[in-house]
């Protein structure tokens, strides 16, 4: 509940009296396969990790630009995924990037994502 409250109220923090989650009181946790059709950003993150190379860097850069735009009411929440996906499709994949490749990939991804949003 708390992370959702923080996200919905950002940048304010609303006081609450929710009890804190205590892992010591939980005897068992159950995990299910994630719904990647509904949660497309999770799928994109898993794809970036699977591809490796510069793709996690590209995903991060595009996500930061999209979230920046969302927090300023320039795009909708669901548009974040579209910006990230289109950026990942556009930026050249580098299997074994150098440090300089990371800097260039980050810059290209940020510029392309910003151009999609017209920042």
Protein architecture, described:
With 119 residues, the protein is mostly helical. The protein has a domain at 35-117: RNA polymerase sigma factor, region 2, helix turn helix motif (Rna Polymerase Sigma Factor, Chain: A). It has five helices and no strands. The protein has helices at 2-9, 40-51, 55-71, 79-90, 99-117. Helix 2 runs parallel beside helix 4, helix 3 (55-71) runs parallel beside helix 5 and helix 4 (79-90) packs across helix 5 (99-117). The longest helix is centred in the last third of the chain and has 19 residues, at 99-117. It starts with a helix and ends with a helix.
Which tags fit this structure?
single chain, 119 residues, mainly alpha, Rna Polymerase Sigma Factor, Chain: A
Concise synopsis of the structure shown:
The protein has 119 residues and is mainly α. The protein has five helices and no strands. The chain is globular, with a radius of gyration of 17 Å.
Ends: how far apart?
Answer: 32 Å
Please mark out the parts with pLDDT under 50 across 5 or more consecutive residues, or reply none: none
- Residue share in β-strands: under 5%
Write the element-wise H/E pattern from the N-terminal end onward: HHHHH
Mean pLDDT, to the nearest integer, reads: 93
Query: Shape from CA axes?
Result: globular
CATH topology of the domain at 35-117: Rna Polymerase Sigma Factor, Chain: A
Overall radius of gyration? 17 Å
Class of the domain at 35-117 in CATH? Mainly Alpha
The tally of beta strands, per DSSP, is: 0
Q: Tell me what the CATH architecture of the domain at 35-117 is.
A: Orthogonal Bundle
User: Helical content, roughly?
Assistant: 55-70%
CATH superfamily of the domain at 35-117: RNA polymerase sigma factor, region 2, helix turn helix motif
Total helices: the number is: 5
For the largest beta-sheet, the strand count, sense and barrel status come to:
none
């Amino acid at each position: 509940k708390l992370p959702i409250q923080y996200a919905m109220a950002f940048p304010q923090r609303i006081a609450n009296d929710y009890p804190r989650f205590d892992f010591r009181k939980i005897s068992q946790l159950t995990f299910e396969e994630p719904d990647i059709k509904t949660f497309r950003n999770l799928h994109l993150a898993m794809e970036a990790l699977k591809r490796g190379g510069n793709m996690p860097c590209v995903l991060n850069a595009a996500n930061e630009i999209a979230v920046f735009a969302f927090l300023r009411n320039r795009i909708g929440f669901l548009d974040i995924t579209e910006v990230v996906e289109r950026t990942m499709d556009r930026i050249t994949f580098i299997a074994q990037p150098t440090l300089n490749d990371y800097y260039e990939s980050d810059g290209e991804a940020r510029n392309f994502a910003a151009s999609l949003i017209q920042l």
